[in-house]
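This section describes the prediction task in plain terms. A model, or a person checking by hand, is given the sequence of a single protein chain and must write out its three-dimensional structure as a string of C-alpha cells. No templates, partner chains or ligands are provided. The sample shown here is typical of the held-out split.
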Amino acid sequence: MPQINTIIVGGGQAGLALSYYLLQQGREHLVLEQATQVANTWRNQRWDSFTFVTPNWAIRLPGAEYQGDAPDGYMPRNDIVAYFEQYMNRFAFPIRFGTRVASVEPKADGDGYLVRTDETVYDAANVVIATGLFQNPKIPPFSADLPAGILQLHSSKYRNPQALPSGAVLVVGTGQSGCQIAEELYQSGRTVYQCVGSAGRAPRRYRGKDVFEWLNITGFFDRTVDKLPSPKAKFLAAPQISGRDGGHTLNLHQFARDGVVLLGRILGAQDSTIKLAPDLRENLTRADKFEAELVKMVDEYIARNQLDAPEESLPNLRDGFEAEIIEELNLKAAGINTIIWAMGYSADFSLIRLPILDSDAFPVQKRGVTAYPGLYFVGLPWLDTQKTGLLLGVGDHAALIASEIAARDR
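The expected answer:
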C-alpha cells in the first residue's frame, strides 16, 4: 500500500494552488485528478465563446499571477486552457490524471486515511478535498417525460448555436451561463424562450470601475458566512454578467426588448407541454433589487471614503414586466426543438466516508479545517469567505491549508 504524506483529491485551480505551496515546503504529496488533462472544466465543459466573467487581474494562482497586457480584459476559453497548461509545465505538479477517487475513509487505528481509487489504495496522513461544488449537472426528473425528438442538454454540453437543431430554443435558468447562452442564441437569429430564476443582476461597470473591482475593494468578497441572510444563501446563483466582447451587462429586460420570450420557473412537463409558475414578475423584481442594493453599497462606500468617482445612473428598463404570464407552453406549437438546462450543479461529497456534512450538505469545517485531524477542504466558496472559491482568493486559502498541514506534521 503506497504511503503518501498528503493526498489532494482534485486537480483544478484549488488542488494546483495547494500543490504549489506544498512543493515550496518540500512536502511529499500527490494530486489525484479523474480527468485526463488539466483544465478539464474549461476545456470540455464550457461553450466555444466562453470567457471569464472576472477581469484578468483577478487571476491570482500562486506563482502565476496575471502579468499580461490586458488586466481589465476577460480571458477567453482557449487562453484559460493555455494558462493552466503553462502552470502545469512550469511547476511540474505531482498529479496523476485519469484517476478517480472512490472513497476516503479513516484508518482503523485512527491515524490517517485510506484513499481508494479504481486501481490503488493509498495510505495518507493528510487528505485535502479540492473537488469543488459542481459535480452533478442539475436536470429535473420530469425531463424524461418530454418528447424524444427534443434535444435536451445541460449548459456544460452546449458549444455554439450551429451545433443545435434548427428551430427555437428553451433555456431554463438565468444565472451567468443561462443568460450568456441565451444572449448568444438570440443574437445568432434563434427564437429563444427563457425560464427566469432567482439570480440577481450586476452592472458590468459602474462609476468608473468594473463591478468586480468594486466588490473586491468594498470587502464584499470578504464577507463571512454569518453575514449572509441564511446559510442557504451560500448556494445562490452568481449574478447575471458577461465578459464577452470586452465585457457587458446582461439585463433580462433588454432580452425581452430584443424578442426573448421570458417565462416563470419550470414546474413540470407532460408530453409536449411544460408547466410554468406565474412568478416571472417576482423574479425580475428580485434581479432588479439585487442590482439596486449593489450600487447603493458602492455609492455608500464612495461617499464614506470620499473617493473621486463620477456619479452614474443605470438604465431603468421595464420591458420584462410587460411580458405575458404563460403557465403552459406547448413546445411543438412554439417550434422548440432544443432545451438547454442551465440550472447549475449539485455537490457530491459522498466519497468521504465520515459524517462531514451539515443539514445543507455543506462540509462542516472552520476555514477549511475539519474536526477530523488531517482532513481539509480547499477551493469551495464560503470556507469562511466567498473569496475562497474564486481565483482571486483560492491561493491565499491554499497557503493557509498548507501551513495547517505543516503545523500538524511538526
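For orientation: The domain at 3-135+347-409 is CATH 3.50.50.60 (FAD/NAD(P)-binding domain).
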